[in-house]
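Fold these two proteins, one after the other.
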Amino acid sequence: MKHMNSEVKEERTSNKKRIDLFLVPIVLIAAFLNLFKIWTDEYANAYYTAAVKSMLQSFHNFFYASFDPGGYVTIDKPPVVFWIQTISAKIFGFHGWSVILPQALAGIGSVLLLYVLIKRTFGVWAGRFAALAMALTPIVPAVSRTNNIDSMLVFTLLLATWMLFRAVRTVKFGWVLAAFAMIGVAFNMKMLQAYMVLPAFYVFYVVATKITWKKKIAFLTTATALMLAVSVSWAVVVDSTSADKRPYMGSSQTNSVLELAFGYNGINRLTGNTSVTGSSHKQPAQTEQQTASSETKQNSNSSADSSQSSNQRKSSFSQKMQAPGGGNQNGMFNTGNPGPFRLFQKGLSDQISWLLPFVIFSIVGLFAGVKFKGPYTAKQKESLFWLAWLLPVAVFFSIAGFFHQYYLIMLAPPIAAFAGAGAVALWSMYKQHNDWKSWLLPGGILTTAALQVYIMSPYVSSIGVAPIAGVGALGVILALVLAIRKQRKNSLTNYLGAAAMVVLLAMPAYWAMTPIIYGGNSMLPSAGPDSSSGMGGPPSTATNSKQSGFNGMQPPGSSSGNSSSNNQMQPPSGSLNGGQMPGGSSNNGQMQPPSGSSNSGQMQMPGGSSNNSQMPNSFSSKSSSSKRKSGGMNAEVNQKLLNYLTKNNTGEKYLFATTDSTSAAPYIIKTGKPVMAMGGFSGSDPILTVSKLKAMIKKGEVKYFYLSGMGKGGQSDVITWIKENSKEIPSSKWQSTSSSAQQGPSGNGTLYEITLK
């Protein structure tokens, strides 16, 4: 800590000619957290892994990011990250780890980029602390260990930030264009989420660049135009291509990339509007009041019983996941209720907010004495950039109606930047001043330790009392001792300051390791002792940490042998039969337990994850297997069904058709053969009509249909026609086992055959 008092210039000079030895262990920590045991995740997020398998087979599939090898429907995101994953799979072979590797490397790269960005202006110690804080932010490695997009998105935005900072230092227009073009590339990773950083880019360039206003406006206007052009380049090509020459744009209702970008992947995230417009059974999500009332009735008895059984705890958790839009105490996907303190609520705080109080104190210290009219120092200008990144993103997540916990990685760079820059700034104020600014350091330590105790308290049964009490006690003691020893310039004070930072980073470090310790979930990644469940809730409602993905899931056509007491979630009368929430999607009505049932079933979340009870027509995850199959809709195929379909294929393009991607993905991954997800990811895309299906059958493109009762939204007429015009295949020919008790509203699904002349 004593090195913090050195001048930035001296620190920079001393490190020019040698590798920063302090950075080496930080990078090794990041590498361990992001890479260790990714080879055990066999399928990763099966929805996206199936797309990579398909994209490897033809340039047509590669360009459009087709979900299936037949080019029937795309995934629900733009293609850039999946192009990179496909290249990785081409180089290293098709494996779970090879599609995860680009994101893991991006997580490490983000740590290095943040070090470079902070070190130059705030000093080498600030860069080290910022890099370490980034590496240990729990949601960062949790996401980076999957094939979800967000880790690569953050790396790309940090690269754009580096270009912007260089543009300001060199006053070269080319770097401005490069920075905004890079945001356009990020748009083609996750669409409007990439634009969250634009306020920071505009504010910083206006404030920091020493050129005339006329040039500023001209440069920013041109750079913005380039950004927009890059952003919509792929969309324009796709949308201008005839629909019969390309796959349907998955998760859109009008087969349009632009609609997907500004609707499903855009404004709907803010409003929480998850209803499907293309369905003839459209039903909006229930209101918050209705859901809260339903939850109260369902949980009134079980919540009061501290000795409730495991199944009852699972039921309580499932019931809390009912409402799209988050109308219950834990919010949709455990993202809390909208409000100014949402980021401090359970489910979000343990993913991202461990250092937020310290960040707030750091912001106060960094902007202390700043005058509105300037002049501003380089530190103040860059602090303004990180603040303009932090605040809009924090506001969005505080009010948004629909997002997943792992989206919070967008907050990691500014939080880590302020943690690093603030640690040095507050230490300097603590040592050199005797006014209110000298109290910022102990105040930040005390409040941050208090928040961390609050964050850990729901997990006392999992992690024990000792670490919670230890963080609280050490935080209070160190803050008080530092307050008493103000302005005493000796080595003991330096060690106390260093110890305080270690204490504040200890539990985030543990939380960041939980996906390794307990297992992760590649569909809804989160950190914490329940990380394998992908729900980020307290352990009392978490799934068994030794299992990942969906517990007890069965492949299509297989039977679990479990009794009917393992109740499944059913859609309410008149609602869509969706229930799935892809990598960003949602179902279209409220999932509820069957009437009279005490145990709730499982809500299916492709591209998301699941809760803890059972649902048919998915795939089992064996905890004893050396390969972890945590994709949720992944794990195993029904080999008997696959053998039957392969043997009886008479040249049809598609091995079989099914309602949604849940049943299709594992078969695509295993065989590389086309499997048709008739309704796209969640089964609600209005892709197929009866007349189109008839034409496909007559052409000999498909004849087998596996219907499980899920995902009918937007295609109920097609499902009805299939059932009325097909021959049901006896289950003895394709089911892997028999069962006396069929599960769910449609059992384990039915296989049909249709041939038309």
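Now the second one:
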Amino acid sequence: MASPETGVLAARARALAVLRVRGAALAVALLPAAAAVVLFAGRASGHLGAGGGWDLARWIVSGAAVLSLLLAALVATVVARARPALSPSVPISEKSAPDLYRLVRDLAERLEVPAPSAIALTPDCDSWLEDRTHRAHGPPDRGEHPPAEARRAPKAPVLVIGSPFLWWMRVAELRALLAPVVAGTGPSAHPDIAAARRFIRGLDAAAAVSARARGPLRGPALRFVGQVARLLLRACREHATIMERAVAAAASERAQTVDYGLRIVAQEQVGLAYAGWDRLLTRVALPAWRMGRWPSRLDAGVVSALTELSRRDRLADGFASRLGERPACDLLEEPGAIDRAASLLAARLFHGGPAEPGPDWSPVGWHQYPEEVVDRKWRLEAARLHRVLDDLPTALPTASPTAPEAAPAAPTLSYASTPARGSAGRRPGDAPPANPADRRTGEPAAPPAGPTLARVIDRLAHDEQAGDLVAARLGAEVEREEREEAARQAALGSRAQDAAVGVAWGDGMVEGGLPLFPLQPPRTGRELLADHVTAMVCCAAVDTAGAAPGLDWLDGPALLVDGARRADLGRPVLSLVDDGDAEPLRGWLTTVGVRPEKPVRLV
């Protein structure tokens, strides 16, 4: 078995290869200047002739040397000053987590490596070391000048920990999980490895700066820098990859002596945490984010989600019994405040929300989620479905197909005739007029055009073209709403960046106000139609059958009937949406006691 020192030596060899690429680039930049020095020295010593072609060569080489030095200075300046990418995270001071810092320092002492300089949390199921020694990552300069010894002393990297780990894992499991990560501070302190990493990070930052270059003068200059940076990155790619693998191998070997048995258990918890965290974000948090609300206790919610996953998954039997042990979040002085900050950062990373709460971006607690998110989500989607149906052209007659042929045709129902809000003093959710007869002819009038589930079912079941048309229009409307929201967030992000001088994309956003890590691809029109019909059914169940909105930790919004979740609604809805067959849904409504002919509240 290879020792940690062997891995460090292998990493150092690759680091030297990276530094040789840097030296070769510098030699190429200085080559014209060296040739000019030789030509002028030869003239002064008499070894090279004067006048004629020699003087012309000296001037040409001198011009090339000046241009080469200027371009080299430009590249070096951009590489040195460009801000490396900074992982968005929540900084944790030692005052707010003394026990956590004590655990990490004890771990570093047992591993005989330098302790991390600081600790930060990230809303993801991962942990790593991050070098934040660049001056742009430090506090603003207030004229204070540290001693020369402090400036020369290498600064250890920052330990970034996935916030779900602190709430789900126990203290002993977290220590075992962090052992190989903390062990990486040893190779990071090696001068050659540190220099190679700084060079690569500078090139990467310079390439990113060039990609955002604008202007007639600044643009071409930075694009040239970007081309040089990408050329050097390609030359360093293989050496840098092998260097990082060797560093990871050395850290893993060093960590073998610390809590090796617990590391196996901790890795099992990592896999479970990934599954539960993903379900919590995509099924629970995302619907709230789309409505302008962000759950403020995501990390606390992941415990409930993972406990539920443990209960449902036979492979996870016994994991819930761990909850009796001390959770790692007890190492924080104020876990609620840290959870709130991490939850807001998660919304910004995965959805693109604002950096601060506001009137249109407010937090929501788990006890408020069913009423504030689930019920509101159903009402909004049901209202959108009826808006789309109201704009459709006149549909097929609503007369019963079993009616006698001699019977007069029933009046055609058109969703375009549905009264708009405020029209004639009525809204779609208001009760119909008391007199059902037509005052002009005395014949029974058509049923009132209100937001009822029955009319949605009849239209999708009797009109073959309605499903495709509604799905397409729903997709267009949702896409328009998302574009408007993205434009609004982009405007807010631009104003925030203008207010903060020198800020790069380290706040978790890219240009255009989009999230760094979007959770889901765009939904198809049919998926949107199924979601909206489901929302309409749930609204009808709540308004006419005594059902209630609820929260399922793994599936998100849920319909509760008599206090129990009904998870059997998906198949009847798909039968209506995909095949136009309404009988399964009508049977489900009868079983639950829903009255589809009754108007529902949309707002």
